[in-house]
Specification:
Blueprint lengths: L7 H14 L3 H8 L3 H9 L16 H10 L5
Length: 75
């Protein structure tokens, strides 16, 4: 899978074309060469969020702090 970064201006252009020409998501995907899932994600939230509203799931915070205190020279 390829990960590409699209400018905000480009994303807006794609949706202007959708509105102007009455395109379906499948047509937009084909015309612009963008995965349809990406288009649905853009419709939901065009500007990517810069924060994560989810706690860390792999490392327990208390254990991480303890490790930091015990091994501060490693950081």
């Amino acid at each position: 899978m390829r990960v590409m970064a699209y400018s905000l201006d480009f994303c807006k252009k794609v949706f202007r074309q959708k509105s102007k020409k009455g395109l379906a998501f499948a047509q937009m995907s084909e015309q612009f060469g963008i995965d349809i899932v990406t288009l649905f994600r853009w419709e939901k939230q065009l500007i990517p969020s810069s924060t994560r509203n989810k706690p860390p799931t792999k490392i327990d915070n208390d254990k991480l702090l303890e490790n930091l205190k015990n091994n501060s020279e490693d950081y």
